[in-house]
Amino acid sequence: MVAEHAAPILVASNRGPVSYKRREDGSLAAGRGGGGLVSGLSAIGTGAGALWVCSALGEGDREAVRRTGGRLDPADTGGMSVRMLDIAPEVFTAAYNGIANSVLWFVHHLLYQTPLEPDFDADFRAQWAAYEAYNAAFADALAEEAAPGAAVLVQDYHLTLVPGLLRERRPDLRVGHFSHTPWAPPDYFRMLPDDVAEQVLRGVLGSDRAAFLTRRWAEAFAACCADVLGAEIVRGDGPDGALSVRFEGRTTRLGVHGLGADAAFLRERAHRADVEERMAALREQIGPDRKTIVRVDRTELSKNIVRGLRAYRRLLEDRPQWRGKVVHVAFAYPSRQDLAVYRDYTAEVERVAQEINSTFGTADWLPVVLHVKDDFARSLAAYRLADVALVNPIRDGMNLVAKEVPVVSDRGCVLVLSREAGAFAELGEDAITVNPFDVEATARALHEGLLMEPAERAERTERLASAATALPPARWFLDQLRALEG
Ligand code: G6P
Question: Which interval of the chain is the signal sequence (predicted)?
Fold first, then answer.
């Protein structure tokens, strides 16, 4: 049944634009989400008829759903219409932690390695059933809310089955799917149980248009469709020619939209008083006349923080001239702490940072300044101060830090960038490129970055900033919508 106030444009994502915490007095505090995804999807706007469907993530959210019936108060959402789904906690946890953040995240980021190899056993099957139920709950809600012929933009690896399920329920809709992660190459993707691999691909192919952050991930998806499903790949002319996948009589167009940084927002935000205060505090911690290497990440295995720290240690070992002259400011914000492998990684980051400090630190020099409490204002302060930004993920859909730093940098900043980050496709020419597994080469890149002449640094930063802002979040969203409607 289609709802009374059916929506012509819908977005579906696991995490919505707002989340709730219960205060001591029992009332609910609404917090707005940050980051490129939320600001991009927020371009759905407050106009009549646009609707964002997301999941309740914790107890505060569930309470908000109980109190509102799922239609959040526009006062909490910046005026956007948001329907939050209260999916049973055990289903949500198995789908989100078990399948999305363990299995699918690990597959697309190529993170499985001994001893982290997957065991697809009875636990996995139960989690997979939860993932199906979780996806079905989204498909049901979208089918109910969408106006005839509406455009639905489904986001990410949490919701790969939604396009296919939605097509069964509502063949009149135009459905897009967007992957914010890399896509695994076929040899790796086939690690998934055969029926699951097929189901994921069929799910995404249920869309009219499946889009990715870079051409590389779109090609990997196409290769998986050919390899696992025997689908036909149709290519337009030239290396960037349009790609589409033909399978069982339907065609899914593939698209590429490289989400960029929001220059206007970042520049304004980075010059507020709270950022200036944090710059002063950081300068104090760094000490006078020292260079600064900055990194800002969620503490997440794909971000390769430990190897980054090892590269810094290598720099101090091999090039003693830097001892006392450089500080590595590392912000590693805890993420997905319900999962043991993320908790262990967080502990490892702290251990290696401490080890460097106890090996090299002196009475007036702390080689690594590690902060683990998420603070966006402090991140911006570090971006503005950085001489070198280290972005060395093993694999990353895009990496917005690489795009944000050049936009707000005060004096120009050298970007040391992994060639395995999606952002490399747009920023590679003006960054110092590294193979993220090569600790020694990363140490050399840091050295080179620290030595770069101010004029060259400034010129490169200017070009990086212009490439990084080519597709700001609002246009990223509207381009997808237009491409789906076209
Ligand atoms: C990163 C990824 C996104 C993903 C998000 C989920 O930002 O690039 O693809 O949707 O993490 O994070 P969460 O904290 O919701 O698990």
Answer: none
